[in-house]
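Colleagues,

For the teaching module next term, I've prepared a clean inverse folding example: a structure given as tokens, and then the sequence designed for it. I'd like students to try predicting residues themselves before seeing the answer, so please don't circulate the second half yet.
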């Protein structure tokens, strides 16, 4: 009797994981905590001076998109290796912390890195690439403009060697404009250059929640969106403003929910993992 009871308990625990690994009937979006960034010079995030002399906190999420035809990871955060560093890590004017690993969060969904079919990046800045080497079996969907900039002489991006090697060896799908990931209009990557040469945003059409747009770094903070503030370090200011115009028109026309990925308030407003939007 004791053994039977124990077995039943184990099966009860495992059942949610087993069902979680099965393809869902409709698209789901999970927002995962992939780090926090303290900006010691917030003035970098506006070239018109509003943040000069200030510091600020940014979140750095990853997103898992579960589609009946597969799994996409959008942006891969700071990197699980930082979780092992008690005091976090520094990168120039930024201090980074990772409190929970992406690998452990995938495990909560009943997923292994090998179960991920696609990874895609809003752009090639370090805080969006950290866990990319975790997914060597996935197809990497890459903006041609971003890929070309990374391989230019001199390169636009200071990519670490591990990322370069994994990207070189990965199965790649190079895209030149907007792209429909699963072919049914439910998960689309839209070009939105300016922050970087090949910057992109992600558009989801969810059955219950409607259209949801993930910003990448089109904006970093809610105020940047409200006041159309452009970071000092953006690649092209005019392209940034043009991309803002395009995406905001799409938001209006689709009545979309727009998520500023780095803004703590926008992140907290999403369903707390492992809950999801569908």
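(Answer key — instructors only)
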């Amino acid at each position: 009797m004791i053994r039977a009871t124990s077995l039943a308990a184990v099966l009860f625990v495992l059942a949610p994981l087993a069902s979680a690994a099965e393809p869902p009937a409709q698209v789901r979006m999970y927002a995962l905590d992939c780090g926090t960034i303290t900006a010691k010079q917030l003035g970098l995030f506006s070239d018109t001076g509003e943040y000069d002399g200030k510091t600020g906190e940014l979140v750095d999420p990853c997103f898992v998109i579960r589609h009946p035809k597969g799994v996409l990871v959008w942006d891969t955060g700071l990197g699980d290796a930082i979780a092992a560093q008690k005091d976090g890590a520094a990168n120039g004017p930024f201090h980074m912390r990772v409190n929970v690993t992406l690998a452990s969060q995938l495990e909560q969904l009943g997923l292994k890195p090998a179960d991920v079919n696609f990874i895609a990046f809003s752009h090639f800045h370090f805080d969006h690439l950290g866990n990319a080497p975790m997914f060597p079996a996935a197809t990497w969907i890459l903006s041609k403009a971003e890929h070309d900039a990374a391989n230019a002489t001199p390169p636009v991006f200071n990519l670490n060697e591990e990322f370069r090697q994994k990207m070189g060896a990965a199965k790649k799908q190079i895209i030149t404009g907007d792209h429909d990931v699963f072919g049914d209009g439910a998960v689309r990557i839209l070009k939105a250059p300016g922050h970087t040469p090949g910057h992109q945003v992600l558009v989801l059409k969810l059955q219950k929640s409607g259209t949801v747009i993930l910003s990448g770094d089109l904006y970093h903070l809610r105020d940047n969106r409200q006041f159309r503030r452009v970071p000092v370090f953006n690649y092209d200011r005019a392209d940034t403003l043009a991309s803002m115009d395009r995406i905001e028109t799409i938001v209006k026309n689709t009545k979309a929910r727009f998520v500023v990925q780095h803004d703590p308030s926008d992140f907290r407003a999403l369903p707390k993992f492992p809950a999801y939007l569908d």
